[in-house]
Specification:
Elements lengths: L1 H39 L1 E5 L7 E3 L5 E3 L5 E9 L2 E10 L2 E14 L3 E6 L2 E7 L3
Antiparallel strand pairs: 1-2, 1-8, 2-3, 4-5, 5-6, 6-7, 7-8
Length: 127
Protein backbone atom coordinates (compact mmCIF):
# COMPACT_ATOMS: atom_id res chain seq x y z
CA UNK A 1 0.00 0.00 0.00
CA UNK A 2 2.87 2.37 0.81
CA UNK A 3 4.30 1.79 -2.68
CA UNK A 4 1.00 2.82 -4.26
CA UNK A 5 0.85 6.03 -2.20
CA UNK A 6 4.46 6.89 -3.07
CA UNK A 7 3.76 6.19 -6.74
CA UNK A 8 0.70 8.46 -6.69
CA UNK A 9 2.66 11.22 -4.95
CA UNK A 10 5.29 11.03 -7.69
CA UNK A 11 2.66 10.97 -10.41
CA UNK A 12 0.76 14.12 -9.31
CA UNK A 13 3.54 16.60 -10.23
CA UNK A 14 3.86 14.92 -13.64
CA UNK A 15 0.15 15.37 -14.30
CA UNK A 16 0.23 19.05 -13.38
CA UNK A 17 3.27 19.56 -15.60
CA UNK A 18 1.37 17.95 -18.48
CA UNK A 19 -1.55 20.30 -17.85
CA UNK A 20 0.84 23.27 -18.00
CA UNK A 21 2.29 21.99 -21.26
CA UNK A 22 -1.20 21.52 -22.67
CA UNK A 23 -2.15 25.08 -21.67
CA UNK A 24 1.00 26.43 -23.36
CA UNK A 25 0.29 24.43 -26.52
CA UNK A 26 -3.25 25.84 -26.64
CA UNK A 27 -1.87 29.38 -26.25
CA UNK A 28 0.63 28.74 -29.05
CA UNK A 29 -2.13 27.39 -31.29
CA UNK A 30 -4.30 30.41 -30.53
CA UNK A 31 -1.46 32.79 -31.43
CA UNK A 32 -0.78 30.89 -34.66
CA UNK A 33 -4.49 30.94 -35.54
CA UNK A 34 -4.61 34.72 -34.99
CA UNK A 35 -1.59 35.14 -37.25
CA UNK A 36 -3.15 32.86 -39.89
CA UNK A 37 -6.36 34.89 -39.78
CA UNK A 38 -4.50 38.14 -40.40
CA UNK A 39 -2.48 36.65 -43.26
CA UNK A 40 -5.59 35.21 -44.91
CA UNK A 41 -7.36 38.56 -45.20
CA UNK A 42 -7.09 39.90 -48.74
CA UNK A 43 -7.64 38.95 -52.38
CA UNK A 44 -6.30 35.61 -53.65
CA UNK A 45 -5.62 34.75 -57.29
CA UNK A 46 -5.98 31.09 -58.28
CA UNK A 47 -2.85 29.93 -60.14
CA UNK A 48 -4.70 27.13 -61.95
CA UNK A 49 -6.43 27.40 -65.32
CA UNK A 50 -9.79 27.52 -63.46
CA UNK A 51 -8.85 30.99 -62.16
CA UNK A 52 -11.26 30.89 -59.19
CA UNK A 53 -10.23 34.17 -57.55
CA UNK A 54 -11.70 35.19 -54.21
CA UNK A 55 -11.31 37.68 -51.36
CA UNK A 56 -11.48 37.06 -47.61
CA UNK A 57 -12.63 40.10 -45.65
CA UNK A 58 -11.79 40.97 -42.04
CA UNK A 59 -15.44 40.63 -40.91
CA UNK A 60 -15.52 36.92 -41.88
CA UNK A 61 -17.33 37.46 -45.14
CA UNK A 62 -15.93 36.30 -48.47
CA UNK A 63 -16.58 37.20 -52.07
CA UNK A 64 -15.95 35.77 -55.49
CA UNK A 65 -13.81 38.12 -57.53
CA UNK A 66 -14.52 36.75 -61.01
CA UNK A 67 -17.30 34.15 -60.81
CA UNK A 68 -21.03 34.56 -61.37
CA UNK A 69 -22.13 31.02 -60.48
CA UNK A 70 -19.80 30.12 -57.60
CA UNK A 71 -20.23 32.67 -54.83
CA UNK A 72 -18.02 32.69 -51.76
CA UNK A 73 -20.08 33.95 -48.81
CA UNK A 74 -18.08 33.57 -45.57
CA UNK A 75 -14.96 32.04 -44.12
CA UNK A 76 -13.46 30.92 -40.84
CA UNK A 77 -10.23 29.37 -39.67
CA UNK A 78 -9.63 26.94 -36.82
CA UNK A 79 -6.14 25.66 -36.30
CA UNK A 80 -4.82 24.88 -39.76
CA UNK A 81 -8.28 24.40 -41.31
CA UNK A 82 -9.92 26.99 -43.54
CA UNK A 83 -13.68 26.68 -44.00
CA UNK A 84 -15.35 28.46 -46.91
CA UNK A 85 -19.12 28.74 -47.28
CA UNK A 86 -19.90 28.65 -50.97
CA UNK A 87 -23.17 29.15 -52.85
CA UNK A 88 -23.39 27.50 -56.23
CA UNK A 89 -25.92 28.92 -58.69
CA UNK A 90 -26.77 27.23 -61.96
CA UNK A 91 -29.73 26.40 -64.21
CA UNK A 92 -32.28 27.79 -61.77
CA UNK A 93 -30.94 25.68 -58.90
CA UNK A 94 -28.74 26.79 -56.05
CA UNK A 95 -27.02 25.05 -53.18
CA UNK A 96 -24.87 26.14 -50.26
CA UNK A 97 -21.98 24.04 -49.01
CA UNK A 98 -19.08 24.33 -46.62
CA UNK A 99 -15.72 23.33 -47.98
CA UNK A 100 -12.91 22.60 -45.50
CA UNK A 101 -9.28 22.87 -46.58
CA UNK A 102 -6.00 22.17 -44.82
CA UNK A 103 -3.74 25.23 -44.86
CA UNK A 104 -0.56 23.68 -46.20
CA UNK A 105 1.36 26.94 -46.65
CA UNK A 106 0.52 30.53 -45.83
CA UNK A 107 2.64 33.67 -45.96
CA UNK A 108 2.27 37.28 -47.09
CA UNK A 109 2.45 36.31 -50.79
CA UNK A 110 1.06 32.80 -51.20
CA UNK A 111 -1.53 30.33 -49.99
CA UNK A 112 -1.54 26.59 -50.62
CA UNK A 113 -4.62 24.65 -49.60
CA UNK A 114 -5.16 20.91 -49.65
CA UNK A 115 -8.44 19.05 -49.75
CA UNK A 116 -8.08 15.28 -49.81
CA UNK A 117 -5.35 14.75 -52.44
CA UNK A 118 -6.00 17.97 -54.36
CA UNK A 119 -3.70 20.98 -53.98
CA UNK A 120 -4.88 24.54 -54.65
CA UNK A 121 -2.29 27.30 -55.11
CA UNK A 122 -3.03 31.02 -54.78
CA UNK A 123 -1.01 34.22 -54.85
CA UNK A 124 -2.07 37.30 -52.96
CA UNK A 125 -3.23 40.14 -55.18
CA UNK A 126 -0.59 42.83 -55.32
CA UNK A 127 2.39 40.44 -55.05
Amino acid sequence: MKKIIIYLLLLIPMLSYSQQELKQENENLSAKQTNNTKLLIGSWKDKSSAALHFSLLSDGSARSDNMQTLLYQKWSVKGNKLTLTIKSIGNGNSSVSEEVFDIYKLDEESLILKQDNIVFEYSKSGY
